[in-house]
């Protein structure tokens, strides 16, 4: 429901420039947007819960004593302050610690610490770090694109793996001068034959595969190939040349 | 002709004919013969056929061609040259405009100035405001706009690949103004991020916006990632590789690479024809240079705008004169003091420094010669054996390379800031300086700790030594001598081997006892050496470890050899058992008829040796494990050394501080043109189809910075974690340590393959340019004729860069 089979979007503001995007993200309708929003909220919640568990287990006990001391000294003048006042005052670290403390003392925080109490330290640390990583870096949709600029070259934008977060995207620009040809190749992959686009680059020992992560179906590959041929090379319309 | 000469000629011809009458008769006979055999009629027929062809085919074709060429007339030039074809193919009406995104946007009338790379490929440098295009063109031709350039102007043209700066068009002019058809019309204003560009010749337009890199901050862009290592190193190492032991897996890898290359080569043959790249496509490298120059050129042009046209003259007012003379008086004093300093003090300091440097260089040369000396070409030099020697060598090489690097960097000052060729040198130079400084700082901390606690450290070390290299070995050997872990070994052999090793260990422990009183001194020496950098004590400790565990190494060798022999004997006896034998000449197993007594003795020996094998195996395993532990310890030391020597710290800091200084390629971003078109609606004109593209520089990836470390890790992993090593361990063959040269290619990656000689350095240091004389500044007030932006209103000096 949240993802579809890879499909193609073409953006072509002028006949000499085109961007081909293959994505698994379905067209954004209102229910889907709402669903995605809740998903993002859930991720944020998971992340903050993981941080809170880490804080409660490893930081709080050492600071607890400290802060009681602190309160003891200032009990006369100190009214309970709201964390956002600190944030507005620009004291971000203090704001964060206060926020974490407040969360820790709240009902869900106590519930969380009770939940994790029977687990050993290393298990808590590993589990919460894994949860935080998953919440931040899990990629729901995968998008890869090829930008074709006549007279300049081809730029590929690829994604490595499902867990890279925003670090997995790699762009690579290949100047037209170095492009020998753009071809459709076929290869065995498991028990099927896949067609994929390659760029043969002058003076390089490897060919460059377009859309290496998604490897879209033949229909899409052919459409992209025609588009690239027509857009990149002068005097060749729709790849007939 | 003179009648007399005609007469002479006539007499000559007549005379000749009468003299050679037989020639005339011969000709006459030939004519008669030809007529008789029908030669004339045949020639007439051929002529008739040819004329028929001409009438029926050539004439109509010629008429058709004329009509066609009348239909599609071509302007000039008769033949179609390759250049002509190229130009024609470029006629798809695509115009490419490179536009600096950070150019000041104002809605005043202006003249767009920049490079014209080809007919429809322009690169905008700046907009000169409130000037006449005619004047600008004249100023560009006469070079007025490039006056007062700090460095030679020809360098600009050379690097940007163009012969002149052109007027490219007009900005914010009214429709009615007549312009050259190749010029562009630009509409821009404070509210509009992307300029609207039209050109009468273009049918579609690519506007490529880029942020200009700031040459003063040493930012630049490049198509290829910046190389942090020196390029020439790898080749020299590759040359050395074949004579060193080249492993099977290395050969295998090379074979696989060759195969792949072959496949790709085949794939390339799929493309049938080779496209000739057009002018625009070839211009990319030039354009990258032009982008790098954009900032500096724009500043220069804007500075000289005021010189366009006639300059109004005006004398200074009285108050201005008073201010001027006061500043002049102060400046004169400063200049006088500076001149005294440069004339009398500076040369002395400089000369002494240079002499010191050269003396140091000579001493370094002597030391380096000692370290690199080999008794025979294939023998190991001192630096190949000892980590300390290698560390000293690396430091000395660095010291030798620094003056040369510094000289190249100083030469940079005499050139434009936008010349980017020396930026990697800059990074390398300061990286190595910074690493050495860091090394010394860490070394001081470490050294002072070691010196202060020399006794305690020495005691710790000697305790560790006795505990692990003597007592642990002794206890393990005595454990092996009495049936270890319930294994029933051969008592006699175990006791013999154990006693042998124990005896050597006893001897060794007495040596260590003798060493104990000197150990604090050695430790003190190590501590003292660490003032030359923390890498020194690490290297010394690494060497100390190899020296103090020599006995384990020799035990490993001895037991390994015994085990290996025994295994070999067992294998050949097994062949005997089967009635076969190993043919050494052909390297194969042949069948062989043995005598009965041979078989009998062989079988008995086989039995005996196979029962003795476990005893030898346990001793061998014991020492092999100890040896592996020592190798991994040394690997830790080596990794530490390579981190201390060549960690790309400066590059990392630069990457965090200013990613623009470490370019790793370029990237384009296609922008939506919806809002762009929307904003145009106000004006009446129809825009050609336009795509807006942002050109951005990609900072160098972290992976590329640590590329060499990955390479080294890969090499180590391949060498030690290969099945070959396991096989060596199992069969008792000696596991060859990784070639030091291979391991340390990383260490040398930032040094040149050949160090500069003493004389070379002397010449280089003496060729340094003199420091600039400070000339008494004369303030000429800049009187603006054209409209000038307030940010540029700074007279001669460019703005201070951060």
Automatic annotation (TrEMBL), chain A:
Pfam families in the record, alphabetically? Answer: PIG-H (PF10181)
The UniProt keywords, alphabetically, are:
Transferase
Query: InterPro entries, per this entry?
Result: PIG-H, PIGH-H_dom
Any GO CC annotation of this UniProt entry: glycosylphosphatidylinositol-N-acetylglucosaminyltransferase (GPI-GnT) complex
Q: Name one GO molecular function term.
A: transferase activity
User: What is a biological process (GO) this protein takes part in?
Assistant: GPI anchor biosynthetic process
Family, according to the entry, reads as follows:
Belongs to the PIGH family.
- Looking at the record, the residues that make up the Phosphatidylinositol N-acetylglucosaminyltransferase subunit H conserved domain are 145-212
Provide the organism lineage as a comma list.
Eukaryota, Fungi, Dikarya, Ascomycota, Pezizomycotina
Please state the pathway this protein functions in, per its UniProt record: Glycolipid biosynthesis; glycosylphosphatidylinositol-anchor biosynthesis
Give yes or no: UniProt keyword NADP: no
Its domain of life reads Eukaryota
Its name, as the record gives it, is GPI-GlcNAc transferase complex, PIG-H component-domain-containing protein
From TrEMBL, chain B:
Q: Which InterPro entries match?
A: PigQ/GPI1 (IPR007720)
> Membrane-crossing residues?
43-61, 433-451, 493-510, 522-542, 562-578, 599-623
* A single Gene Ontology CC term: endoplasmic reticulum
Provide this UniProt record's keywords sorted from A to Z.
Membrane, Transferase, Transmembrane, Transmembrane helix
Does the keyword field hold Transmembrane helix?
yes
MF terms from GO for this chain are: transferase activity
Which GO biological process entries does UniProt record here? GPI anchor biosynthetic process
Protein's name in the database: N-acetylglucosaminyl transferase component-domain-containing protein
Organism lineage: Eukaryota, Fungi, Dikarya, Ascomycota, Pezizomycotina
């Amino acid at each position: 429901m949240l993802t579809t089979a890879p499909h193609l979007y073409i953006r072509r503001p002028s006949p000499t420039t085109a961007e081909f995007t293959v994505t698994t993200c379905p067209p954004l309708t209102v229910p889907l947007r709402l669903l995605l929003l809740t998903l993002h909220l859930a991720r944020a919640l998971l992340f903050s819960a993981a941080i809170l568990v880490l804080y409660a287990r490893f930081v709080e006990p050492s600071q607890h004593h400290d802060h009681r001391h602190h309160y003891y000294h200032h009990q006369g003048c100190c009214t309970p302050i709201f964390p956002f006042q600190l944030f507005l005052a620009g004291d971000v670290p203090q704001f964060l610690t206060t926020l974490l403390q407040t969360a820790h003392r709240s009902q869900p925080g106590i519930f969380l610490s009770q939940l994790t109490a029977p687990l050993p330290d290393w298990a808590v640390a590993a589990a919460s770090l894994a949860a935080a990583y998953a919440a931040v870096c899990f990629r729901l949709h995968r998008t890869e694109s090829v930008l074709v600029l006549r007279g300049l070259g081809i730029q590929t934008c690829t994604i490595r793996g499902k867990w890279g977060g925003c670090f997995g995207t790699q762009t690579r620009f290949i100047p037209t001068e170095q492009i020998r040809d753009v071809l459709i190749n076929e290869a065995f992959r498991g028990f099927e034959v896949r067609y994929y686009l390659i760029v043969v680059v002058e003076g390089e020992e490897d060919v460059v595969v377009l859309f290496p992560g998604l490897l879209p179906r033949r229909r899409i590959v052919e459409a992209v190939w025609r588009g690239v041929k027509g857009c990149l090379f002068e005097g060749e319309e729709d790849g007939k040349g | 002709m003179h009648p007399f000469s005609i007469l002479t000629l006539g007499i000559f011809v007549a005379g000749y004919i009468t003299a050679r009458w037989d020639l005339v008769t011969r000709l006459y006979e030939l004519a008669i013969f030809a007529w008789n055999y029908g030669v004339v009629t045949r020639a007439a027929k051929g002529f008739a056929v040819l004329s028929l062809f001409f009438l029926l085919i050539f004439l109509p074709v010629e008429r058709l061609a004329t009509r066609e060429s009348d239909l599609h007339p071509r302007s000039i030039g008769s033949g179609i040259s390759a250049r002509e074809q190229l130009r024609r193919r470029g006629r798809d009406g695509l115009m490419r405009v490179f536009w600096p995104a950070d150019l000041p946007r104002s809605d005043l009338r202006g003249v767009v100035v920049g490079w014209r790379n080809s007919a429809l490929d322009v690169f905008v440098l700046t907009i000169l405001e409130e000037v006449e295009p005619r004047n600008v063109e004249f100023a560009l031709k006469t070079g007025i706009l490039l006056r007062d350039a700090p460095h030679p102007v020809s360098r600009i043209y050379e690097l940007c690949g163009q012969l002149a700066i052109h007027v490219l068009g007009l900005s914010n002019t009214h429709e009615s103004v007549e312009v050259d058809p190749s010029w562009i019309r630009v509409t821009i204003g404070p509210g509009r991020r992307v300029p609207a560009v039209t050109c009468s010749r273009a049918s579609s337009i690519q506007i490529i916006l880029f942020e200009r890199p700031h040459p003063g901050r040493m930012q630049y862009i490049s198509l290829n990632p910046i190389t942090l290592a020196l390029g020439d190193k790898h080749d020299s190492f590759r040359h050395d590789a074949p004579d060193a032991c080249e492993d099977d897996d290395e050969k295998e890898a090379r074979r696989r690479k060759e195969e792949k290359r072959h496949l790709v080569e085949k794939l390339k043959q799929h493309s049938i024809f080779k496209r000739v790249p057009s002018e625009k496509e070839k211009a990319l490298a030039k354009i990258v240079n032009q982008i790098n120059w954009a900032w500096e050129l724009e500043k220069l042009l804007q500075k000289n705008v005021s010189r366009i046209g006639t300059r109004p003259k005006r004398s200074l007012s009285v108050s201005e004169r008073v201010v001027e003379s006061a500043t002049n008086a102060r400046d004169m004093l400063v200049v006088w003091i500076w001149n005294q300093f440069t004339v009398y003090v500076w040369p002395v300091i400089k000369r002494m420094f240079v002499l010191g440097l050269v003396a140091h260089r000579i001493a370094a040369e002597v030391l380096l010669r000692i370290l690199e000396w080999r008794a025979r070409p294939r023998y190991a030099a001192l630096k190949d054996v000892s980590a300390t020697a290698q560390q000293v060598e690396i430091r000395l090489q660095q010291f030798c390379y620094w003056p040369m690097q510094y000289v190249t960097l100083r030469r940079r000052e005499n050139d434009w800031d936008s010349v980017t060729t020396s930026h990697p040198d800059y990074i390398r130079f300061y990286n190595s300086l910074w690493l050495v400084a860091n090394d010394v700082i860490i070394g001081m901390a470490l050294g002072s700790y070691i010196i202060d606690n020399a006794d305690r450290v020495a005691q710790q070390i000697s305790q560790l030594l006795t505990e692990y290299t003597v007592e642990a070995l002794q206890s393990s050997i005595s454990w092996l001598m009495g049936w270890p872990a319930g294994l029933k070994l051969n008592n006699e052999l175990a006791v013999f081997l154990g006693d042998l090793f124990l005896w050597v260990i006893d001897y060794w422990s007495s040596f260590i006892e003798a060493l104990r009183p000197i150990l604090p001194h050695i430790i003190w020496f190590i501590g003292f050496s660490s003032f030359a950098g923390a890498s020194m004590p690490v290297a010394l400790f690494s060497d100390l470890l190899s020296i103090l565990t020599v006995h384990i190494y020799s035990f490993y060798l001895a037991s390994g050899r015994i085990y290996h022999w025994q295994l070999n004997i067992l294998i050949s006896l097994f062949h005997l058992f089967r009635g076969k034998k190993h043919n050494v000449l052909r390297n194969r197993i042949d069948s062989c008829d043995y005598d009965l007594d041979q078989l009998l003795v062989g079988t008995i020996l086989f039995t005996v040796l196979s029962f003795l094998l476990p005893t030898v195996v346990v001793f061998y395993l014991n020492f092999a494990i100890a040896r592996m532990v020592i190798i991994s310890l040394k690997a830790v030391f080596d990794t530490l050394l390579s981190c201390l020597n060549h960690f790309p710290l400066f590059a990392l800091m630069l990457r965090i501080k200013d990613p623009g200084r470490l370019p790793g390629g370029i990237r384009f971003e296609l922008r939506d043109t919806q809002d762009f078109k929307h904003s145009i609606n106000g004006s009446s004109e129809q825009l050609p189809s336009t795509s807006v593209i942002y050109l951005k520089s990609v900072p160098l990836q972290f992976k590329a910075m640590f590329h060499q470390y990955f390479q080294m890790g890969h090499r180590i992993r391949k060498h030690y974690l290969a099945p070959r090593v396991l096989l060596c361990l199992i069969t008792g063959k000696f596991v060859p340590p990784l070639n030091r040269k291979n391991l340390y290619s990383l260490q040398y990656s930032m040094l040149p393959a050949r160090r500069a000689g003493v004389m070379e350095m002397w010449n280089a240091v003496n060729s340094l340019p003199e420091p600039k004389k400070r000339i008494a500044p004369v303030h000429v007030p800049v009187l603006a004729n054209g409209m000038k932006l307030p940010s540029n209103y700074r007279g001669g000096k460019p703005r201070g860069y951060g």
